[in-house]
Write a structure and sequence with these properties.
Number of strands: 9
Bound molecules: SN-glycerol-3-phosphate, calcium ion
Number of domains: 2
Strand content: 5-15%
Radius of gyration: 20 Å
Number of helices: 13
CATH superfamily of the largest domain: Phosphatidylinositol (PI) phosphodiesterase
Order of helices and strands: HHEHEEHHHEHHEHEHEHEHEH
Structural class: alpha/beta
Shape: globular
Distance between the termini: 43 Å
CATH topology of the largest domain: TIM Barrel
Length: 292
């Protein structure tokens, strides 16, 4: 028999065998499911200013390889890593540019943003920390051997940001097979944005941030590999409904859920079989999973 046919038959037999396992053995099989990846939300954002280089250094130092970030664009077309559409919460923009309210990221040049202090608001210890460009951020991730869940934030404000993001990723060597296979996922709350990323570069794994109706999941499965809902909207049934669909790369859709900051919720979503847990408190989640 052809080797591929043998493999398909073996997989089918294994699936049928699970149906006939006694309860304790089913539980044992489930226990062998890999633990979810723990994703440091905006970097190790409880320990260092969110979305900065110190935040990803800290995540690496704590032993977490996955980090999440948010990407937006400056007035002169540079991609920067920052969560809010405006600069005042996480920088000293009000002091440096007092007449420029409402301080939108898209109204400031990269050179202007590079003058801002993005660390002092968090702690004087981080004074002088800058808003990183996406290029600086990718190079630091590479140095730290980290993995990235990259969020395209507010894409309606930044036409063409998908192609531009892919260009930076390509220039920084993140679109080769090794990175694509295990170190990069691109996500957005905008289905259009994720669809665009998939159309431009089908090899990139993509995720939709949200919880589409189960009846619509098959449409998302045409262009996303993961559905990433808030943990508050997730249930065992919904997780199973997601996994019942295969994504564009031929494997069941995955789930990275957010933002899980306590042990009980981490254990609950791990029990649903999620693939990743996005958290501001990665140590709490890691400990919870060890003791689950
Ligand atoms: O990755 C999920 C999470 O980041 C989505 O919410 O507002 O923190 O970007 P937000
Ligand atoms: Ca985010």
């Amino acid at each position: 028999m052809h080797a591929r046919a043998v493999a398909v038959l073996a997989t089918a037999l294994a699936a049928v065998a699970v149906l006939f396992l006694p309860g304790s053995e089913v539980r044992a099989a489930e226990a062998h499911r890999p633990q979810p990846a723990v994703v440091a939300h905006r970097g190790a954002s409880a320990h260092a200013p969110e979305n900065t280089l110190p935040a990803i250094d800290k995540a690496a130092a704590l032993g977490f390889s996955w980090v999440e970030n948010d990407v937006q664009r400056t007035k002169d077309g540079k991609l920067v890593v920052i969560h809010d559409a405006t600069l005042e919460r996480t920088t000293n923009v009000e002091q440096v540019f007092p007449g420029r309210a409402p301080w939108k990221v898209k109204d400031f040049t990269a050179a202007e943003i590079a003058r801002l202090d993005a660390g002092s608001w968090f702690s004087p210890k981080f004074a002088g920390t800058r808003v990183p460009t996406l290029d600086q951020y990718m190079r630091r991730l590479e140095r730290n051997h980290e993995k990235l869940l990259l969020e395209i934030k507010n894409p309606k404000l930044y036409p063409g940001i998908e192609a531009q993001t892919l260009k930076v990723l390509a220039n920084d060597g993140w679109l080769d097979h090794r990175h694509l296979a295990s170190r990069l996922i691109v996500q957005s709350f905008s289905a259009n944005s994720v669809r665009t990323v998939h159309a431009l570069k089908p090899a990139v794994r993509t995720a939709f941030l949200g919880r589409p109706d189960t009846a619509d999941l098959h449409r998302y499965a045409a262009f996303v590999d993961l559905i990433n809902p808030s943990y508050r909207t997730l249930s065992a049934d919904y997780a199973a409904a997601v996994r019942a669909h295969r994504g564009p790369h031929g494997v069941p859709l995955g789930i990275f859920t957010w933002t899980v900051n306590n042990a009980a919720s981490a254990r609950t979503v791990a029990g649903f079989g999620v693939d990743g847990i996005i958290t501001n408190k990665p140590e709490v989640v890691r400990r919870a999973l060890k003791t689950a």
